Amino acid sequence: MVATSYCKMTCLFLLKRYRICWRAGIGAIACLLSWWCGMMAIHELGHAWGAWLSGGSEIDIIVPAVGFSRTTIGINPQPLFVAWMGASAGCAVPLVMAIGSTIVWKRVGIMIWPQRWTLGWAGFCLLANSAYIGLGWINHIGDAGDLLRHGACIWQLVIFGLVAMSSGFWIWHQMIENRRADSR
């Protein structure tokens, strides 16, 4: 009984004392969860676009809030193209959105999406897709395994991973540097 009430008092004290950190932590988790779901949705839409462009049919996309997404294609005439389209669109679409919103904001003065959020999400998508493809060949998992089964070379996956990862880290670095410059 005493230990339980002491534990409650300690928890309440810490929550009151560090409520800003607690709120920031919840905000960070919510932000990462929304980035994760958005990244998976764009990645899977890339597979669907690839299947549609190559004449595939019976396309089923599943994007859970927590966990991993997947796209099932009944008739897939170009499986290598469809597999590449997931990671390619998963990197290109957020990047185009970030660049587009930056151009509109700088030229017109209208902020379409929150600038840092869009850039952060683009960097996150690049990093997630780069790790998925660039390291997935090691255990032949997911799309990397599909790419290898359908004729892609390991060096192509590694190059994709390196370019996307470098770009993602560069975007995050620029975002941090711009924030530092704004605070001066």
From the N-terminal CA to the C-terminal CA, the straight-line distance is 52 Å
Classify the helix fraction into a percent range: over 70%
* Count of separate DSSP helical elements: 6
Round the mean pLDDT to the nearest integer and report it: 85
Q: Which series of helices and strands comes N to C?
A: HHEEHHHH
Report the uncertain regions. Answer: none
Query: Would you tell me the structural class of the helices and strands?
Result: mainly alpha
The overall strand count is 2
Global shape: globular
Structurally, how many domains make up the residues? 1
The largest pleated sheet is described as: 2 strands, antiparallel
How are the strands ordered across the major sheet? Answer: 1-2
Our estimate of the beta-strand percent is: 5-15%
Structural Rg: 21 Å
Q: How would you characterize the overall build of this protein?
A:
The protein has a two-stranded antiparallel ribbon. The model has no long low-confidence stretch (mean pLDDT 85). Helices cover 76% and strands 7% of the residues. The longest helix is centred in the first third of the chain and has 35 residues, at 19-53. Strand 1 (57-62) and strand 2 form a beta hairpin. The protein has 184 residues and is mainly α. The protein has helices spanning 2-17, 19-53, 79-108, 115-134, 142-149, 154-183, and strands at 57-62, 70-75. The protein has one domain. Keywords: Membrane, Transmembrane, Transmembrane helix. This is Peptidase M50 domain-containing protein. The chain crosses the membrane at residues 20-42, 81-105, 117-138, 154-172.
